[in-house]
Amino acid sequence: MGVKGGSQGFARAVADTASVGLSLFPLGISFGMLVAHTGLDWWWATVFTAVVYAGSLEFLLLGLVAAVTPLGQIAATALLVNLRHVFYALSFPLARVWPLGRVYATFALTDEAYALTAGGEARSWSGSRILWMQVLLQAYWVAGATFGALASSLIPFTLHGLDFALTALFVVLTIDAWRARRDLPSPLLAAASFAVAALLIPGQALPVAMALFTAGLLARYALRDRGAPPAAADVPAVPEHEPEPEEPVLRTPVAASSRGE
Amino acid sequence: MPSPLYLAAAVAVSAAITWGLRALPFAVLTPLRRSAVLGRLAVQMPVGIMLILALYTLQQSRPADWPAAAATALSLAVAIGLHLRTRNAVLSILGATVLHVVLSTCLAA
Fold first, then answer.
1. Which of A90, B2, B56, B63 could lock B68 by a disulfide, CB 3.0 to 4.6 Å apart?
2. Could you give the CA distance from residue A231 to residue B36 in angstroms, rounded to a whole number?
3. Total domain count, chain A
4. CB contact under 8 A, B38 and A90
5. pLDDT tens string A220-242
6. What residue spans define the domains of chain B?
7. pTM
């Protein structure tokens, strides 16, 4: 990826990230204010957001370090809170990014970066557009947090309710994802999964809900495709004459376009 | 007050685990990407994952009392209504967040 492609990728990434940046920046401000309220120096807001870079974990981490929680428990919390990210490898177009850039692309694979690339069209984006998108998202977040921590020591009152930006962001992303593919069972299954998880294990509702949702989608796939012609990929008992071509089982445009890499 | 060394260690541990969870699955899942079932999952998952994240942030907000809950419900309705009407993510997020900040700050005062 040359320098020319890089500047074009940057311009596109600015447009790609405009709406998400608008929620990450105020959310960063609220995180920075919390850092100041916790009693840490302002620059810890910059360190947290630049090095850990996982929004919901950072909010939790603040409370944990304020109570001087043992590192083992912090590690367990990080594992549970961010377990959902393992699913993002299914569709994130990492192959478009050049090898060295993949170190950062995986480091910065946040919910927001996943959301922006979840639509099938991201599979045709250049590597520099994807990387710039991630760099900008982190820049909004780090800048917001640093600004919030610094401002918090200057202004005498607290702004409440900034954290709603994250809810608003995911609501908007849900509606956009719904418009892209009006598949009603998927959101219904997700809502049911979350309800069950929140009732049974309220402290770990996020990873549990995502696991239930994934299991539900797999069950739906198994039920719907029962009786259909055997698919090469998931029926090992296919007779062993020549390897089955994969085309018949790739019914989705996303899966089909991913083969063009 | 936690020591800088402890804080640095907490940040390093969190960062290492987060990066591992984001990077390692590519080694396992990338060869499976061409399978039909994973192709289907990758297409069907985004809307559900986003909805779960939205519900999770609502669960985490834990309104202190019913006026706070009403402020959240109203802001939520504004976010949904604005986005269904305008399809403008910037307007929807900014509008709902400003409303929520104004309501919450007034309630807290």
1. B63
2. 8
3. 2
4. yes
5. 988 886 545 444 444 333 333 43
6. 1-32, 63-109
7. 0.71
